[in-house]
């Protein structure tokens, strides 16, 4: 009987912690509520094991620990959840010089490829490219930009792409 009560207390504590983390992130974050990854589908152990099978990922996360790890990941480090963003980051690191050249021209195969990775339809890509160009143009024009390490420049590009490509799903 005591073990059952202890288990219930632990489960309720995990649930309350998870929910308070979500509320804290929503209240203090800069992104609008619901704009982040789905914790059960895109985060946690389930997403790592079943990246292309959302139902299996969600089921696995719930079975593993009632989804608390997935919810914590989504709340504390949402950038680690989506497999798409990991592919985007790798592509940018591997092709940064070509991408910065393409964005300066406003077109190019590497630019199209990174937007394809982000799931941006061809009908939205022109608007997204305009947003990326605007964002990166202001960064490149700053005096500090030339002093930045390549990885920091690539990180700036990554943030410009992921920010602009969020409008692809609208």
UniProtKB/TrEMBL annotation:
Source organism superkingdom: Bacteria
Extent of the signal sequence: 1-25
Keywords, comma-separated and alphabetical: Signal
UniProt xrefs under InterPro entries: DUF3015
Signal as UniProt keyword: yes
Name of protein: DUF3015 domain-containing protein
């Amino acid at each position: 009987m005591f073990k059952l009560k202890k288990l219930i207390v632990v489960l309720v504590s995990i649930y309350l912690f998870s929910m308070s983390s979500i509320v804290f992130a929503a209240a203090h974050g800069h992104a609008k509520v619901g704009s982040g990854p789905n914790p059960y589908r895109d985060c946690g152990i389930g997403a790592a094991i079943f990246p292309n099978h959302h139902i299996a990922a969600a089921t696995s996360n719930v079975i593993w620990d009632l989804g608390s790890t997935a919810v914590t990941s989504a709340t504390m480090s949402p950038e680690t959840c989506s497999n798409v963003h990991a592919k985007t980051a790798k592509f940018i690191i591997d092709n940064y010089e070509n991408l910065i050249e393409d964005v300066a021209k406003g077109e190019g195969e590497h630019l199209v490829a990174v937007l394809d990775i982000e799931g941006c339809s061809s009908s939205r890509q022109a608007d997204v490219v305009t947003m990326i160009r605007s964002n990166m143009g202001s960064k490149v024009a700053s005096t500090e930009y030339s002093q930045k390490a390549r990885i920091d420049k690539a990180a700036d590009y990554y943030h410009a792409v992921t920010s602009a490509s969020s409008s692809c799903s609208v």
